[in-house]
Amino acid sequence: MISQNRTFRVVGPLAVIALLGTILGPGLARSQVGAEVSSQPEPPRANPSTRGDGTAASRPGQSADEQAVRAVDEAFVRAYNQGDSKALAALFTEDAEAVEAEGDHLQGRDQIERRLADTFAASPGVTIALEIGSIRFLSPDVAQEEGRTIVRPTQDTRLAQPYTVLYVKRGGRWLISSVREEADPLVRPHDRLKDLEWMIGDWVDEASDSQVRVNCRWSEDGNFLIRSFTVRQQGKPVMTVSQRIGWDPLARRIRSWEFDSEGGFGEGTWSRDGDRWLVKHTGARPEGVAASSTNILIRERSDLVRWSSTDRVLGEASIPGAQAYVMVRVPPPPRTPPRVQAGPSTSPNPTRSPR
User: Fold this and answer.
1) Model pLDDT for residues 159-193, shown as the tens digit of each residue
2) What are the beta bridge partners of residue 232?
3) pLDDT higher for 117 or 34?
4) How would you classify the pairing of strands 92-99 and 173-181?
5) Which tens digits make up the pLDDT trace of 304-322?
6) Do the domains 36-186 and 12-24+191-329 match in fold?
7) How far apart are CA 20 and CA 244, in angstroms?
8) Residue among 13, 230, 307 at smallest CA distance from 2
């Protein structure tokens, strides 16, 4: 879907489609805020264990090791609610891993710390509580904990996510070795896309002789984000693109499907890489030529997104170099002040007698 013959700034439908990608949203295992918005009573869980402050509660009869594991849970909640990514990272082993429900994989303490820092920067004041379902000791030095996180990115929003944590005992200290989020069957497709809600509205990328204008909105059922593109060259429309963004429950990823006015089509798979989103696009030109690209999106401000396209292939030929664009949000039109209707006149009516 990349055409080398086009002369306007956005080179081919695939380049246009790539501008539709998503950007930074909170999400580390145990801090994913794209999870369920709990609007219904939750099903009962085996032996949940939380205190009013969100930390794990001790119970009589616990072994010293179980109490130590629960103490790590308490330290995790305290540091998370203080937005302290360094203190949180210190609770992990150097080679720890975290696998998010969407499939994104974080390897090593440093990468986990960066993701946590990104989460706190994107959602200031976010808090967490743990509902511990069970702690099982697989060996004297390995324990497995299962439960559910309750994340509150705002005071009025409550998001839940099942998790499994593997603890290991090293040098007499229990540390987190692995965190794995699990898909929650109760999460609606709408809630999976909440991190992308910032895209709703009108956006534009302009050059001296070309313009790309984008409108993003929720579908009527609320389960998809729909984007409409209009490409103009020298003031005349030369292409339109329609895209639908949704949750793929089989691949457990956000995906997009696109169709352009020339008869081409494509799809994209999105994954997060630190503070960037990578969008892997594949598609077909109407003449039957395959195309692909890797697109990188960085949301710098609420009203500005930078996008670049690399690894572009058309048929069997690689297209050298990269393309970069900036999309800015179109401000809403100024409100028109309401018209003031004239009230009844207090002056004498000249057509009638003052009697």
Assistant:
1) 778 899 999 999 999 999 999 987 666 678 888 88
2) 211, 237
3) 117
4) parallel
5) 988 889 999 999 898 888 8
6) no
7) 10
8) 13
- Cα 48 to Cα 32: distance, rounded to the nearest angstrom: 20
Domain at 12-24+191-329: CATH architecture: Beta Barrel (2.40)
Report which residue type is found at 190: H
pLDDT at 32: 31
Question: Given this model, what pLDDT does residue 153 score?
Answer: 79
Residue 5 pLDDT exceeds 50: no
What does the DSSP 8-state code read for residue 6? Answer: -
3-state secondary structure 115-181: HHHHHHHHCCCCEEEEEEEEEEEEECCEEEEEEEEEEEEECCEEEEEEEEEEEEEECCEEEEEEEEE
Choices 3.40.50.850, 3.20.20.480, 3.10.450.50, 3.40.50.2300: CATH for 36-186: 3.10.450.50
Q: Give every CB contact of residue 100 below 8 A, 6+ residues apart in sequence.
A: 27, 28, 29, 32, 106, 181
For the chain, the structural domain boundaries read 12-24+191-329, 36-186
Residue whose structure tokens are 């090791």: 65
Answer for the pair 112, 96: CB distance below 8 angstroms, yes or no. yes
Output phi, psi for 52, to 5 deg. -60, -25
Residue 87 is predicted with a pLDDT of 96
